[in-house]
Write a structure and sequence with these properties.
Number of strands: 2
Number of helices: 14
Largest sheet: 2 strands, antiparallel
Number of domains: 1
CATH superfamily: Ammonium transporter AmtB like domains
Strand content: under 5%
Order of helices and strands: HHEEHHHHHHHHHHHH
Radius of gyration: 20 Å
Strand order of the largest sheet: 1-2
CATH class: Mainly Alpha
CATH topology: Ammonium transporter fold
Structural class: mainly alpha
Oligomer: single chain
Length: 405
């Protein structure tokens, strides 16, 4: 009944995407100070629990069950009602169990809001974050999943997003920027990453998991799966090396954190285009990502936007330029299910990609800013000075490192 090869592959891909959330926790955890590392890490790990509960209750149904105005779906499959163990997702020889598709999409839902936390590190109370997590999923993430991947208005219009340039990175990055503007700067400045080895570990887990993120988005094993896999590694590598060279020339040192950050920027940028462009185009996208995201972070620093862990500059900017790059470099020569971009005679498709990513980014920005203001009426969003200086102990009663040991 099911294709066992595709099913096995998708179970592995699902597991890889799940691994990205702990990877993100290590990546972010290494970048903050010693007294705040557990606080940033729990924000990633708690999404694994809260988002799973919400996905089971209403998330899957809101994304993939019926259609209401092209924006959201109905609640016919709330609590997975009507979903059978034997139900098939796909057609022909590409069948996999629907339950595998549900689990795979759930892993995307888990990591997307967790990405935002790197921007407001040390400044948001845990209670406010939990409320924000639920509200943002309901009113930003779930609608865009439906609009792009669930047959909603953007999909009907012809917008493409292979693995989450709009749905994951652009909207998370712009939400991160909105949170920075709402919360303002940290009162207690940190000296820099407390553990670069943790950052490296997190990057390795993210990079490894990203193969499931991108290649798995084909939802079966074929030539496009292989293309997306290779494009993912190529773009990340070229972006990381480009960032390293820029830092070496401009900052006079070949910085390890720069190499790691550049690789993540390349991964984010290739995500929407991974299965729709040639590998040569992936090289161009990777180099462009390394350059543009590097200077986006530089601009952010000059403007004194306190995006602590560069979520906007890496994920937001990366998701936006990757979506636009798809509009440039997309070609049906490598994927008949894709579209021809501007350079292959498709100006209309390019226009749609630009409009879609700008519109999605603007909505995510303004909704996030307004949501934080409303949440602040319920419970304080911003931490106090005492909490900010030692969030692990004050908020959670735990410490990552015991002094003297």
């Amino acid at each position: 009944m099911f294709d066992t090869g595709n099913t096995g592959f998708m179970l592995v891909a699902t597991s890889l995407v799940m691994l990205m959330t702990p990877g993100l926790a290590f990546f972010y955890g290494g970048l903050v100070g010693r007294k705040n590392v557990l606080t940033i890490m729990i924000q990633s790990f708690v999404s694994m629990g809260i988002t799973t509960v919400l996905w089971f209750a209403v998330g899957y149904s809101m994304c993939f069950s019926g259609d209401i105005g092209g924006i959201i779906e109905n609640l016919d499959h709330a609590f997975l009602a009507g979903v059978s163990v034997n139900e098939v997702f796909g057609s022909g020889q590409n069948n996999i169990p629907l339950l595998v598709f549900i689990a795979y999409q759930m892993m995307f839902a888990i990591i997307t809001p967790a990405l935002i936390t790197g921007a407001f590190t040390n400044r948001v109370t845990f209670k406010a974050y939990l409320i924000f997590l639920v509200v943002w999923l309901l009113f930003v993430y779930f609608p865009f999943v439906h609009m792009v991947w669930g047959g909603g208005m953007l999909a009907q219009w012809g917008v493409l997003d292979f693995a989450g340039g709009i749905v994951v990175h652009a909207i998370a990055g712009m939400a991160a920027l909105a949170s920075v503007f709402y919360l303002g700067k940290r009162r207690v400045e940190e000296k820099g990453p407390h553990s670069i080895p943790l950052v490296a570990l997190g990057t390795g887990l993210l990079w490894f998991g990203w193969y499931g993120f991108n290649a798995g988005s084909e939802l079966r094993v074929d030539e496009v799966t292989a293309l997306a896999f290779l494009n993912t590694d190529v773009a990340a590598s070229f972006a990381g090396v480009t960032w390293l060279i820029l830092a070496w020339v401009i900052e006079k040192k070949p910085k390890f954190v720069g190499l790691l950050t550049g690789a993540v920027a390349g991964l984010a940028t290739i995500t929407p285009a991974a299965g729709f462009v040639t590998t040569s185009s992936a090289v161009i996208i990777g180099i462009s990502s390394g350059i543009i995201c590097y200077f986006a972070v530089t601009m952010k620093n000059r403007l004194k936007w306190d995006d602590a862990l560069d979520v906007w500059g890496v994920h937001g900017v990366g998701g936006i330029i990757g979506t636009i790059a798809l509009g440039l470099f997309g070609t049906t020569a490598v994927n008949a299910a894709g579209a021809n971009g501007l350079l292959f005679g498709g100006p209309d498709f390019f226009f749609k990609q630009v409009v879609a990513v700008i519109g999605a980014s603007a909505y995510a920005f303004f909704f996030t800013y307004g949501a934080l203001k409303l949440i602040n009426l319920i419970t304080p969003v911003r931490t106090s000075d005492a909490e900010e200086a030692n969030m692990d102990e004050v908020l959670h009663g735990e410490t990552a490192y015991i002094e003297g040991i």
